[in-house]
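Input record (Table S2, row 423):
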Amino acid sequence: MNKILITFDEAKKMAKSVMKRCNILGKISENKNIITRLYLSKEHKHVNIIVEKWMQKAGMKTWQDEVGNICGRYEGNTLNSSAILMASHLDTVKNAGKYDGILGVLSSIEIVHWFHKKNLRFNFAIEVIGFADEEGVRFGIPFLGSKGIIGEWIKDWLNIIDNKGISLKRAMEGFGLNPNFFNKASRAKDDFITYLELHIEQGPYLYLEKLPLAVVKGINGMYHLECKFIGESGHAGTVPMSCRKDVFFAFSEWLMFLRKNIQKEKYSKKIVSTIGKFNCFPNVTNVIPESIVFSLDLRSIDNIILDNFLEEILNYAKKISYFYKTTFIYKKKYHSFSVFFDEKLQEILLKTIKYFQKRTIEIYSGAGHDAISFAKRCPTGMIFIRCKKGISHNPNESVLDTDVALSLQVFIKFIININQNFL
Ligand code: GLV
Ligand code: MN
Ligand code: MN
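Output record (manganese (II) ion complex):
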């Protein structure tokens, strides 16, 4: 079996098919001209139906699990053996690109299809999962799909509401899932011998280095907070400046503090901070704003630095709100520690990449990935593929067919190799 290799010409044809399928899924969106596909939406259902058909065509037995993940299984030499899991997500952010998550799922299906056509079976099964929710856009918690698989769903989450007032419970029912059965999506620990994910880098390093692929060493820790400054509304023309409880002054001074703090040597280049969501109430020209609510996304590979930074900016928010007679409150909505991937697996992946690509770089992921969920369960590895100028979470996401072809060759060689040297 060691002699079986995939040629670059074959891989290029497969890459074309992957890209064509990314285009097909890119048309399934809640808006006509942009890509937005949220968890438990009708577009999610539509995509699951299409991807399931592609999985079946690739020789897999398929099912949709109890939290909405679409799953396929290609049996090994013996029935019911543990599997290599290759996965990524099928949901998107709002106004997304075509490849974030989707490329990893569709490449994995293409790889299984190649094995199926060659009639190759291994000492392990291969499973592919298209995770239902990784971005967390609809309910504010990321990785709902992979958390379902690793049994880390929390019943209380069923009560979370989206911005239209629909609870997760109701959305599941609308999708045709029974919310009481979410636990059934959870898989046994020894179901998977390893987890592999191919993902676009979503950052600039491979593009700048003119390299197609790299092994990912780890993923940044991350906090998601919902923050609120509360003041008092009043008449824009009559309330003297000294009598106001204007949340905008408190917010803007706090934001400038955050900006200056992040530039200090101890934090500079070690932390990234984003306020991506913002609401002002009542949002009227001639009314002093009563409250502003915004999201805060903070990330770093260094957990201690991240915690210190968070503490400093929260303390300052309290201080500045006292000065402006406003109140500051916050809710921690999500936290993950930084993750460092399995070193042995990284070594094998690196060796495989170097067989095809002479030079590569070490890379940490600033973006979160479903691999975070699996890193605590089984040897987990990720490969990044270059995307043009590092652009992602943006409709201009772009990848080269030839890079996709190379990644398919790497994964196929890797799987054939480990079949002999069982992990
Ligand atoms: C997902 O893309 C994230 O990193 O937020
Ligand atoms: Mn994303
Ligand atoms: Mn992603």
